[in-house]
Design brief:
It is a single chain. It is built from seven helices and 14 strands. The chain is α+β, with helices and mostly antiparallel strands. The protein has a six-stranded antiparallel beta sheet, with helices on both faces. Strand 13 and strand 14 form a beta hairpin. Helix 1 runs parallel beside helix 3 and helix 2 packs antiparallel against helix 3.
Length: 261
Amino acid sequence: FQGVSGRREITTLGRGGSDTTAVALACDLGADVCEIYSDVDGIYSADPKKIKGARHIDEIDYETLFDMTFFGAKVVHSRAVEMARKCGVKLVLASSMKEGNYTMVKSKSLEGAKFIAVSSHPEIYWIEATLPRESFRNVVRKLDELRTNLRNPSVTVEDENIRLSFWILPNQLSEVDKLIRDTGRDTFRIYDAGLVAASGYGIAHSAEAIVLITEILEKNAIPYHHIGTTNQSVFIILPKDFVASAEKVLHKRLIAEEEKL
């Protein structure tokens, strides 16, 4: 998608451009609601094409939906969700092909912890680097100059070194590979992996959420390399061959069977 400014400057909007443009116009016009129509009738607790029994979600808050889209849900772009939250514009996600279900996205005040959805990236790269303190800032600055999105970065101090870990999408590997060549391959370790995330309300404040997820993974013999959290999600970095099975078993236990936290 492309847009033209008042000075007739052409800008490529990129993936999710139509969603983001619609929300931007709604914000500028002072609209209360922005309706976005596609070939699906809103948000589900998982991809219905992959997970039998995925539940339709009638209402969801901005923060949880942002996490879902960040971790792989495809119905709406994460930039559109974040912009709607900042402007206070409610979103209606509905189907242009049939009437009936839709999802309302707005601010919600909820108590307790509850999982409502599972999403995934079938292929990512998990990257770990052990760097001397003096070169850590230079490496991060170079990554920023390359416009590389360091997703869920983690920094740990180990004596005179700093350990940096993060994940990227496959289309960013060439950017990072250039930096690796310049810095030295012995500094970096790259894992061809996948990601599964379980999102919901109050997850970051529930230690039981991580305990429960590790129990489910281990009971089903699903290996994992890293587990992290955001305000609304627990995400798991694991071998990509186990993404589908992890997504199914987590949805079954956390959503379908509503395992209590």
